From TrEMBL:
Keywords attached to this entry: Oxidoreductase
Record-linked Pfam families: Pyr_redox_3
Entry keyword annotation includes Phosphoprotein: no
Keyword Cell membrane listed: no
Organism from which the protein derives: Coleophoma cylindrospora
Protein name: FAD/NAD(P)-binding domain-containing protein
């Protein structure tokens, strides 16, 4: 057998809750406001009523303000500064507030409301407005959608409302940014013989004070969080096992490009230049992240790992021993941070299926994580790719273009979407003109039941537009989901971390027969030069590539921090019962331990919330 490591053949993680899509509420036939002044007056009167409830703490009256058929309140740290939650219907909202209290003091319009609709067809009208929230500890931002309740005399009611904490009163971000930015980049008491370079080098060595936060992993999520913590004045150290910042991207397979458009993949505070490509290649992204770390003055220790870590429950701090490889010499450093953030990515170890006869195979067997790019040595080779997600397609495309005879093994169904269709789905939010914070708030404001329903509508449109591609795949024997309810890649990514392919060229090779598909058959066993399937068919192979995914994030937690931490940490990724992302960006189940992972837009939005939680703890506003 080849270089595959079989020590990770088993995998177990608590499955995600399968949140059902909600049906749209009935459309009202009552007249809808046509003038901007009417829209604004309606929204203001509604919020005046809502604010009287907050002022009088008469929360039972919320039942009169939420749509009877279906309504949702998604809250991130405003109602309760320790929780992310999605509440369905007035009864659930009232019950939670009466049990745990409400930190919201008032809500006002943040800008002029507009007429919109909650469905893709535009048949259910709503008044939509960005809102500003005042809480006991700070300010928030959100989005409100009001509809006319057909079950209550067409009165204006909440269909969805999102409230998310944005700044803390004790340290507003605006106090150190924009027109309030510091005059100089070094402190006033810096010794006269030292300049900015000396100052940053000393900061990087953590000679002045120990970090309050240790971030393990210098990918985009780790760097986003470190940047936000730095702006909030929280001393932070980031470590990474890679030799160079950005190598977490550079070391992936040669032809990897981001499948989301550049507008969705911005980093906080530093936009891409105007000529940045829509689909960024991995090495370019690695270089950008390295530049970002320098510009934002992040303290990153490369070639560094956690050797030991223990939590002191009485002192509420960690003891962490780091091992750094400095020019071939291992240097140990001990710190006592109050917080550790694991930001090692969404994946654990490679998931290796335990196929019978794997040891008999005489060719190479590699996991997709060990594939770095095809060369002309693949010409004429028979290669089997097991899997049908993004990595499987990208790898199959690469080796086919280098002359290999490729067979893709697809066990179930795979949702396929063309890159142009995927870009079109989010183009109204992520584009050249819409402020990125507005885009993120709008996207996160949709509770998962609503997002799923809207995603079905988008999916139906995409299937029609992508029909030539999908028809070719079907004729080639590739299995696609059946309608009428087609998933959306953003929901699939949040729920499963995969299960789809955004087509950047492989589908055509499959449709043309250049890449063969073995569909729906279990693998019976390997031979010395082939795979035998349950139907008795046999496919010859010189090499087998396992694009079979990864174990869960908690296995990486166990590997780095041990059983004592991993056993307390909540399940990571997928949805909880309310449709919130499990175990990430919020309290993890173990004190002083946090997990930061996800794609760029999730990292950009939620890194703010994670940083605010930590700053609140460090400032004595909130308990650990």
């Amino acid at each position: 057998m080849g270089s595959v490591d079989t020590s990770n053949r088993t995998w177990s993680e608590s499955p995600s809750w399968d949140i059902p899509a909600v049906e749209y509420p009935k459309a009202s036939e009552a007249p809808f406001p046509t003038q901007q002044s009417e829209l604004k007056a309606t929204a203001e009167v509604f919020l005046e009523t809502l604010n009287r409830i907050f002022e009088n703490k008469d929360y039972s009256r919320l039942q009169h303000l939420m749509n009877i058929e279906s309504s949702f309140w998604r809250d991130h740290l405003c109602i309760n500064d320790r929780k992310f939650q999605t509440l369905s219907g007035a009864k659930e909202v009232i019950s939670l507030i009466e049990e745990g209290g409400c930190a919201i003091e008032n809500i006002t319009l943040d800008r002029e409301p507009k007429a919109a609709s909650i469905d893709l067809a535009g048949s259910i009208k709503c008044i939509q407005s960005f809102i500003a929230i005042r809480t006991k500890i700070g300010t928030g931002k959100g989005l409100l959608k009001l509809i006319q309740d057909v079950n209550d005399g067409n009165r204006w009611k909440i269909y969805t409302i999102y409230t998310g904490l944005w700044e803390l009163d004790c340290f507003p971000e605006t106090s150190v940014t924009g027109i309030q930015r510091p005059s100089h980049s070094t402190p006033e008491d810096l010794h006269r013989d030292k300049n900015w370079q000396d100052y940053t080098e000393e900061k990087h060595k953590c000679l002045d004070e120990e970090p309050a936060v240790l971030i393990v992993g210098a990918g985009h999520c780790g760097m986003m969080t470190a940047t936000r913590l730095g702006i909030l004045g929280v001393k932070t150290l980031v470590i990474d096992t890679q030799k160079r910042t950005g190598d977490s991207w550079r070391t992936r397979y040669r032809h990897l490009c981001l499948h989301d458009g550049c507008w969705m993949n911005q980093m906080p505070y530093l936009n891409y230049p105007p000529n940045w490509p829509v689909y960024c290649p991995k090495d370019k992204m690695g270089d950008f992240l390295e530049s970002y770390a320098s510009i934002m003055e992040l303290n990153i220790w490369n070639s560094t790992s956690v050797a030991e870590s223990t939590w002191d429950d009485e002192g509420k701090r960690w003891t962490v021993v780091l091992e750094s490889n400095r020019d071939g010499k291992i240097v140990k450093t001990t710190f006592h941070p109050r917080h550790i953030i694991q930001s090692t990515g969404l994946n654990g170890a490679p998931r290796i299926p335990d196929f019978h006869g794997m040891d008999d195979f005489e060719g190479a067997i590699i996991h997709s994580s060990g594939f770095y790019g095809a060369t002309d040595t693949y010409t004429g080779k028979n290669v089997i790719v097991i899997g049908s997600g993004n990595s499987a397609h990208d790898i199959a495309y690469d080796i086919c273009k280098h002359g290999a005879k490729v067979t893709m093994v697809q066990r179930g169904t795979t949702f396929v979407k063309t890159a142009s269709s995927n870009l079109r789905d989010v183009s109204s939010l992520y584009n050249e003109h819409t402020p990125i914070n507005d885009s993120d708030i709008t996207l996160v404001s949709s509770p998962i039941p609503v997002a799923k329903r809207f995603g079905y509508d988008l999916g139906a449109v995409s299937v029609k537009l992508d029909e030539p591609t999908l028809s070719g795949l079907t004729k080639a024997g590739f299995s696609l989901p059946k309608g009428p309810d087609y998933p959306h890649v953003l929901v699939l990514g949040s729920q499963r971390g995969g299960g789809f392919y955004v087509d950047i060229g492989c589908s055509q090779l499959i449709a043309e027969g250049n890449i063969k598909v073995k569909q729906g058959q279990e693998i019976r066993h390997f031979t010395k030069n082939s795979i035998v399937f349950a139907d008795g068919s046999e496919v010859e192979a010189d090499e087998i590539i396992l694009a079979t995914g990864y174990t869960g994030v908690r296995q990486r937690t166990r590997q780095i921090f041990g059983d004592a931490v991993a056993d307390k940490v909540d399940p990571i990724w997928g949805f909880d019962q309310q449709g919130e992302q499990r175990g990430v960006w919020r309290r993890s189940g173990h004190p002083g331990f946090w997990v930061a992972t996800g794609n760029f837009w999730l990292g950009r939005h939620y890194s703010r919330l994670l940083s605010l939680q930590i700053k609140a703890i460090e400032s004595g506003i909130s308990e650990l």
